[in-house]
Amino acid sequence: MVPVTTSTLLFAVLLLTTQIVNGLPQQFKRAQDPEVLERRDLFRRASAASPCSKLDLDDAQSLPGWPKLEQYARSKWGEGEWTIIINPPGYRKDKPATMCVADPVKIEMTGDSKCNETRKDIPPVKKDSNHIKVNEGYTNTGNWNITNVTTAAHAEFFSGNFQLPNITKLHLDSLTAVGKFINAPDNSFVTVVSNVTYKNTELTPVPDKHCIGTILEQECITPAKGRIQLVASGYIWFKYKTKARHYFFV
């Protein structure tokens, strides 16, 4: 048995987003893109998202490098009749064939942010008190639509880390949020990342006056896009029917 590992990069999932800071997800219109794949039932979707999904034979044969893999088997072990097996149950579980999300998924802005500032009053935590709680930080909510998908691992439920651009005035590194998505046309998902903290602040008292705190809250909408890279790797088993000295090949 000679192990051969194949790795194929698929840059086939494209995402469009409206990114909102300190706001709720909002709906937005998108041009209807032609579907690359025919719709199929989502019966393969797992109940929980995972960074990787096991490939089946249809998945493997849909990869761009599949003809080269078959040609390698013929040149290495001959033209004999074979059965192709992938992820056989109970056999060599340490040699799976999988499709995995390549982290991180980098997101880039496609236009300028449109921001609005609103003044917000914060009353004291108790009557006749000068203490208020002020929330500091940011909340980033991304609404994503999948516009293009891969044939392999179709309808599988994936999770990945999304690296978002920093559009705030704070000196932050890029933001990372977890996203869970289905590799199927017209599916949408949401990413959320936040570092909001509450700070206890004491107001300067003014005699005979009731004091409240005031903050400025900024909300920004930013167009952005990204591309999820799915990597296929692992072992494919070629079972030769009439091979005398070898039974399984990889």
> How many runs of DSSP E, i.e. beta strands?
15
Shape: elongated
* Proportion in helices: under 10%
How confident is the prediction overall: mean pLDDT?
75
Q: Gap between N and C termini, in Å?
A: 7 Å
* Number of helices, where a helix is a run of at least 4 consecutive DSSP H or I residues: 2
Class computed from helices, strands and strand pairing: mainly beta
Major sheet details = 10 strands, mixed
> What assembly state would you assign to the polypeptide chains in this entry?
single chain
- Order of helical and strand elements: EEHHEEEEEEEEEEEEE
Please, could you describe this protein's structure?
This protein has 250 residues and is mostly beta strands. The protein is 7% helix and 46% strand. It is built from two helices and 15 strands. The strands form three sheets. Strands 1, 2, 4, 5, 6, 8, 9, 10, 11 and 13 form a ten-stranded mixed β-sheet that branches. The protein has a three-stranded antiparallel β-sheet with strand order 3-14-15, with no helix packed on it. Strand 14 and strand 15 form a beta hairpin. The termini are close together. Mean pLDDT is 75; it is low at 1-44 and 244-250. Keywords: Signal. Residues 1-23 form the signal peptide.
